[in-house]
Write a structure and sequence with these properties.
homodimer; about 350 residues; Peroxisomal Thiolase, Chain A, domain 1; SpoVAD_sf (chains A, B); SpoVAD (chains A, B); Stage V sporulation protein AD (chains A, B)
């Protein structure tokens, strides 16, 4: 077995890369949520002065990257990073590639739907620990108006949504990983498999993704020999409230108790008593803005020491669900330790 | 600088991973082309017995994976590979993710448009050389009927195409990389930046991608200290005939003579005297089926010893070109040495 591999899904980083800078930017709904004060930048509307929602999303990703680079003390242009790893939910990950054009550094585009955040952290950590890079910039984004119209209906239609539907998070998160420095370290990465539990409703992504999250958490704990309690917090990416409850039940079937130290980013972003977001948040930005905006700050404040971020992706396309296919899902876990 | 990095774009693999198996599958037009006899499997039509073109493309990717695994002596199910790295041109790289579902191994989805083939080889090589994997399966695909209708027009419309338009290649290529074994090795990987030279016509992708190819070739040669003549063959991915000529001119401006040892996969796939493909082939499968089907066999026959594969990607989406954006492009190079 490869020397850094400890199981079928998990690798151990020999010299765990450090998160030396991170930033979260968020839209107006997210700014009004319970974590609104934690984001590094928020915008009063969905267009942020751009001529299209797509351009607005791109500007958000670039803003997140620039803020993260600034936090990391990297101010030159083009930034002194060896790779830009990025992805988003738009067709041809066009937010990421147009952001890459502005950043002007070597780039790999990634796609794992809303799991892309932890995919990017994992690939970035391996590029650093493997000796290929000193610094890697990772970024993901999603935007309510670009994503809803691409996957489901333009929001202007005002079509009625089922109670378990989720609300796409508007925002972007960026992380600068480095070979050394101050900050939490990425110690283990658990790469998920694509799973399909028979969900075919594109509004019911929490249900599609919950099994993938539980499979990856189970694999991570089994292969590392850790227990749920080892972590101060295990967060999934964007199962939202219904998916979170389902994950808790599915985990119980595997004798894993996801209790007080478990939550889901999509369930944390909004206040369900006063914000009309149905089951909760979804999108690449869900795990990214909660992690970059809130959790990493909680780690810096000493309130969290060890967290497991399990971003979750629903691998549908409008074509596949119109053709009657199920929605497969995937989840990748990264362990962050202070 | 990170220990395996030799320049801004290029890394040297310390223990160069080996290509222990590869396979190319191709559609009917490709089967009739000059390399038709080289592909491991060809199909008589574009549906290959499936109920949609999308399912046909997926079956092609799976066929290519299974053949490559077979060549590598990996016959168990799920296959004993540590990662499946894959991408394609369909929205949400749905060919890759549904193939990942069937393969049932840990997966990272990649997107670099038609540059995804060399992106996958490069990421895979680093995962092996970095100590994270013993074996990695890389795969990409494209399909004329799925891609044309998604990016431009359904082929059934019979819309007239400009002479510089390209013809999307139908097929898939897969490669099994391993830490040791018999086969050519990946010695250097040069990661491209996103560039934009002002092309906005989605039929003129060769022109959009040629500058990216030349930038990456130039970076590779400068950073490795190699000359064009070091390689028995330098191949770009899918510039086709017009883009190839443009690449030769742009290279000359940088004092690089791309002569007899330079060609483009998109220009090699079809016989332009008898096949109506305008400028030539495009799509992820272009570089993949020429490399997996033909060039790796030429290396096994001893006819080629050192080749540089420079897959090229046009980073457009239908949304961005309808919104009047240019078509940025990227190219990644991998050096294969017997």
């Amino acid at each position: 077995m490869a020397k850094k591999r400890i199981g079928l899904h998990t690798v151990r980083l020999e010299q765990p890369p450090v998160i030396i800078g991170a930033a979260a930017v968020a839209g107006p709904m997210e700014a009004q949520g319970p974590l609104g004060h934690e984001y590094d930048q928020t915008y009063p509307d969905l267009t942020i002065g751009q001529s299209s929602f797509e351009r607005a999303e791109r500007q958000m990703m670039i803003d997140a990257c620039n803020l993260a680079l600034q936090r990391a003390g990297i101010t030159k242009k083009p930034p002194a990073v060896d790779y830009f790893l990025a992805g988003d939910l738009l067709n041809q990950i066009i937010t990421a590639t147009f952001s890459g054009l502005q950043l002007a550094v070597p780039m790999y585009g990634l796609y794992g739907a809303c799991s892309t955040f932890s995919e990017a952290l994992a690939v970035g950590a391996k590029l650093i620990d493997g000796g290929y890079a000193d610094r890697v910039l990772c970024a993901v984004s999603s935007h309510n108006a670009t994503v809803e119209r691409q996957y489901r209906y333009p929001t202007e239609y005002g079509s009625q949504r089922k109670p378990y539907a989720q609300f796409t998070v508007t925002g972007a998160g960026a992380v600068v990983l480095a070979v050394s420095g101050d900050g939490p370290r990425i110690t283990y990465c658990t790469t998920g498999k694509v799973v399909d539990y028979g969900i075919a409703d594109p509004f019911n992504q929490g249900a599609a993704m919950a099994p993938a999250a539980v499979e990856t958490i189970h694999a991570h704990l089994t292969e590392t020999g850790r227990t749920v309690d080892f972590y101060d917090l295990i967060v999934t990416g964007d199962l939202a409230r219904f998916g979170r409850d389902m994950a808790i039940k599915l985990a119980a079937e595997r004798n894993l108790t996801l209790g007080k130290n478990y939550n889901d980013c999509g369930a944390m972003i909004y206040d369900h008593t006063r914000q009309d977001v149905h089951s909760g948040g979804s999108g690449c930005a869900s795990s990214a803005i909660v992690t970059c905006g809130h959790l990493l700050k909680e780690m810096a404040r000493g309130k969290l020491k060890r967290i497991l971020v399990v971003a979750t992706g629903a691998l549908l396309s409008p074509t596949t669900f119109q053709q009657g296919e199920n929605i497969p899902a995937i989840a990748h876990a990264v362990a962050l330790e202070a």
